[in-house]
Design brief:
Elements (H helix, E strand, L loop, with lengths): L5 E5 L4 H12 L3 E8 L7 H12 L3 E6 L22 H4 L11 H16 L3 E3 L15 H13 L2 H5 L5 E3 L7 H10 L24 H13 L10
Parallel strand pairs: 1-2, 1-4, 2-3, 4-5
Helix pairs in contact: 1-2, 1-7, 7-8
Length: 231
């Protein structure tokens, strides 16, 4: 029997990453999920990641511990207020303060090391450039460039026949399409949290950019929003 193809999937605990795990599983991959405790104010997402990994049945789930509060520079890793109740127009301009410097570059580097060890040729990341393109490390140009770097800078990339691929299945999906896809694939979104500023009980604020986009996605998909909100 041929061994199942393997994939490392970045799993934050939110709507997008949970959908990515479901897509990878649906495509026949044996999934190795990777989460990060990086000093984020919304570390409750890691509990969600554990729940999702268990519910969807991944092969292995690891959480890497790094400390990006050492550098700060983001509302997620420093004492900077998370923006609330911004309009779609406001969200579409400039890079927001919730951008964590070089985060996806760092995360993909860890995922790349993990992929080499387990023999995975595919890395899935839930970047999305359609509904919200404020983050420079969510752009297709960045992903393409990183994939080239991955194949130039690893033993697997330079010695094996099959190239390492960075998979971005959500890149050109709206939030509504993402929610509909995950629902079809059996994701229990009640287990996920996308909020940048949740309370100590793990309830979403309902007002940050991520919450607003999530609400909009469920509404446009005609799917009941299962999120626990603070109000």
């Amino acid at each position: 029997m041929t061994d199942k193809k393997k994939a490392v999937v970045l799993l934050s605990g939110g709507l997008d990453s949970a959908t990515c795990v479901a897509i990878a599983l649906d495509q026949g991959y044996e999934v190795y999920a990777l989460s990060f405790r990086y000093g984020q104010r919304h570390s409750v997402e890691l509990e969600a990641a554990d729940r999702i990994a268990t519910q969807l049945g991944v092969k292995e789930h690891k959480t890497a511990v790094i400390d990006l509060t050492l550098f700060g520079g983001s509302a997620l890793t420093a004492d900077i207020d998370v923006p609330k109740d911004r309009s779609d127009d406001d969200m579409s301009h400039d890079i927001p303060v919730t951008y964590v410097p070089a985060r996806n570059t760092i995360f993909l580097s860890f995922a790349l090391a993990y992929a080499e060890v387990v023999g995975a040729k595919d890395i899935f990341i839930g970047v999305n450039a359609l509904d919200y393109s404020g983050y420079p490390d969510c752009r297709p140009e960045f992903i393409k460039s990183y994939e080239e770097t991955a194949n130039l800078g690893t033993k697997a990339g330079v010695t094996e026949d099959e190239r390492i691929r960075i998979q971005t299945p959500l890149l050109n999906m709206t939030k509504a399409q993402i929610a509909a896809t995950g629902t079809r694939l059996g994701v229990d979104y009640a287990m996920t949290i996308s909020c940048y500023d949740p309370d100590t009980e793990g309830r979403a604020c309902g007002h940050c950019d991520s919450c607003l986009l999530r609400k909009k996605g469920f509404a446009e998909a005609g799917i009941a929003d299962p999120t626990r909100y603070q109000d």
